[in-house]
Every structure is written in structure tokens, then in C-alpha cells.
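Following up on my earlier thread - several people asked me to post the actual chain instead of describing it. Fair enough. Here it is, all 231 residues.
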Amino acid sequence: MKRFLKNLFLKNWGLKLFSFLLALILWLTLITPEKVFSEKTLTIPLELHNIPSEMELIERPMATIDVKIRASKSLINDITSANVHAVLNLEKASLDQEDYPLNKSMISIPSGAEVRDIYPSQVSLKLERTKEILLDVEANIIGKLKEGFKLENVGIFPPQVLIKGPESKVKDRYKVRTSPIDISALNETTELEADLILPNPDLRLASSETKVRVRIVIQEANPEAKRRKKT
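Reply from S.P.:
Thanks for posting it. Predicted structure:
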């Protein structure tokens, strides 16, 4: 038995080594790239879709996740973060749920590739109920009228606007201000448009209107004295 094994490995060993190397070269030459697989890990954005209209996202999850992908060597180099997408569908989200699992079905990848792993396996976020409220609009008047004139009245149209946002961020005491209106160059009643500035960046206007009309009523400070001076 020992002689048999010895002859098996040592007899004509040069020829056997040559045959082995020749077979290996042929195998490496004939095998196609499509049959050789490789893996790579990509960092891709996590997109949030279908947030319920009556809810607000107040705590966002991490912006990116890591995805390990397996594909043939002929395909793997063409797979980048530009053609791999992760989408978390929040259509059925609830106010009580904060942890959301990530699974392979959420990952869109080129045909022929396979998602092997996702990190992290879940993300945390927080939703809150949407609240709407009418808030008063306040004109932001800056500057000082020229001598001899006085500011009689400031009218705003509409005087209130409907705003919306997360329930915890909407306060009854808030007011919406206009962009600054400089009256230092005015000497007569003037009407103009002004942008609206919300009291909190988490709030937004409930309509597409972003401006109000402001009517600034200016009068002479002492018109009777001026008339007497003329006579």
C-alpha cells in the first residue's frame, strides 16, 4: 500500500505536475467572468416615501445605510451607489412605532445582483400628528418717518394665515411676521406686498400664498400749523 501511494505521487512527478498546471490554466482560461462572483459594500442614501398626510416626521433616521451586494465579476464594477436605492415605505406607519426593520425587498439593485446583507438591520424615527392653526400676522416695521410725518395705521390683508406643522411645535401664542418694511423713505400712504416669516422652521404655510398686502397709512404730523404758515 505504501509503495502504491509512493508511486502514485512520485512516479513521473514532473509529468503529473505539468498536467496539473496545464489543467489549471485551461480552467482559468475557459471559465467565464459571469460564473465568477464577487462582493462589495456600498453606502447608499435611505429614502423615506409615503409619509401619511396627517403626520409629521420630527426625528429622522440615519441618512445612509450600508448594503453588501453579490454579483458576477462582469457586473460588480458597474454597480454603484447611483444605481442602488433603499426605500423605506411609511404608508402604514403609526404614531406609536419608532423602530422600523430594513429588509432586502426595500433595496433596488441591477438585475443579476443580489443583496447579501444590510447594516443596520433597523432604523429609528419619530412621527407626530399634524396640527393646523390660524395665526395673526404682524407687520415688521423698521426705520423712522421723516420729520413732519406720523404713522397713523398699518393694515394687513389677510390679517391671519393658516399654518401647519408637528403638534408639539404649533403654539397659540405664535405670530407670523412680515419681512422688514422700511418706512424711512415714505411720505404718503403706501400699499405693498411683504413676505411671510414663520415663527418656527418646523412650521409651514397651509396654502400656496407666501405674501400679504400691507397698507401703511401716513399723515402729516401737524397739517393745521402747516396751512397757517402758508397763509
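The mean pLDDT is 87. That should answer part of your original question.
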